[in-house]
Amino acid sequence: MNSVNFAQQTPLGNFNNYSQLEPEYQYEMQETGALDEEEMDFNFDHTKMLEKAVQEQSVLNIGKAARQGISKGTISEVQLEEFCRNTRRPNIPLFGFFQESENSTSDEQASLRMGQMMIMKMSTTDVRKIESVQASLNSLSANFAKHTKVGYIKQQKMSREYETPGVEGFKGINLSRLYNTSTLIGNDALTQLTNFYQKVFKMFFHPSYTIWTYSFRPATVRLTDKHFREFPLQISDTLTEFGLDIAGLHLPQELLDGDISANHPFLQSLLIEDPVTEIKRRRREREKAIFTAVCAIGRTLKNLRAYHFDIEKSCLINCPNGKNCKDHLMWEQLKTVRLQNRNNGVSTNEADPREILSKFASMKNPSSTSPVASSSSSTVAHKH
Questions:
Q1: Tell me, what's the pLDDT at 134?
Q2: Does residue 280 carry a pLDDT above 90?
Q3: So what's the pLDDT on residue 45?
Q4: In the predicted model, is pLDDT for residue 44 greater than 60?
Q5: Given a cut of 70, is residue 127 above it in pLDDT?
Q6: Which residues contact 295 (CB under 8 A, 6 or more apart)?
Q7: Which long-range contacts (CB under 8 A, 24 or more apart) does 163-170 make?
Q8: Nearest alpha carbon to residue 33 among 8, 56, 55
């Protein structure tokens, strides 16, 4: 930023660079005429004035800063639009606005109108959150698409049957049967696999919320922490192989590397003009497809922890009430009670969802205690 040297006494000492002053001092010096037009920095940052005016919840000062920036050419229309889009709409006190309006001059009336227009364009908190989440999701999707390049999976016949093994309390699920009666939903392979895996994961346990307690972190040394158990490798391997198959990248073990024999039964079963080239393609794309399937498993577990457990229907649902929900069991509640049970030497694997909900509902009563702080006599443990 260009600046003009000058000597000006402020509460912060002697400053020789106008642009380095705090916004309130810049604003005060400009408003009181401490600097004339030649002394003022052409690139005076009116954005700082806008930020201060928003913090002050002053419609008048917001309008003043915007009008001055436009008239002096130090702020553009694009910059104003960007400022409004990224600024949380202030809560303007009605009495404060009344005072500004009643005591304003004709020039200040114009600033008030400009300030009102600026505030109308500013986002509410909820809108900004939604836009932020959407931008993050779009960025993540673009990043995964860039690295995986698996693309869109077209519904096709699989090369063999797949069923997850019934191990460590997990129910065995016939993936092929479920796939043949389902429609893949999503614009890319990662989303399609994630949506399909969510159907599968909801079927692993009764009660279905037990899946919340499992973590899948193949890229880290620490596979689990105090809140989670390790997702069985046998199941993740089956899910990955299934994902490769529906993406059209299945290969028998003996064709994963080495020479390719045109007489191999698998090549003959492909019924295409150049099966050798097809095998090379599958070898080339398998690594990124495996990455996609692995990411889908991790994303599925994370997504389901945002679901709620409907006690009456005994199923996981995508509840629109979020953290404000009072009727369903949430992961954060279960996690808190599991931690309490662990501290009291009680099994963390079992809990009664009705008792958990009752405990958290009682927290609204000032006389009640937190589930974490309650005594061992109130520990929740129930055999399903």
A1: 56
A2: yes
A3: 61
A4: no
A5: no
A6: 144, 148, 190
A7: 163/238, 164/200, 164/234, 164/235, 164/238, 164/239, 165/232, 165/234, 165/235, 165/238, 167/232, 167/234, 167/235, 168/232, 169/205, 169/210, 170/204, 170/205, 170/232, 170/235
A8: 8
Residue 139 has what pLDDT? 58
**Could you tell me which of 111, 104, 65 has the C-alpha nearest to residue 87?**
65
Backbone angles phi, psi at 315, to 5 degrees: -155, 160
Asked if omega into 23 is within 30° of 0 (cis), the reply is no
Q: Both tokens of residue 118?
A: 């600026």
At residue 283, the pLDDT reads: 94
The DSSP annotation for 316-370 comes to EE--TTGGG-SSSB-HHHHHHHHHHHHHTT--SS---HHHHHHHHHHTTSTTS--
Cα 220 from Cα 224, distance rounded (Å): 9
Return d(Cα 23, Cα 27) in angstroms, integer.
Answer: 6
- Please name the residues in contact with 198: beta carbons below 8 A apart, sequence gap of 6 or more: 300, 303, 304
Alpha-carbon distance 111 to 113, whole Å? 5
- Please give the Cα distance from 200 to 296 (Å, whole number): 12
382 Cβ contact partners less than 8 Å away, ≥ 6 residues apart: 350, 351, 352, 355
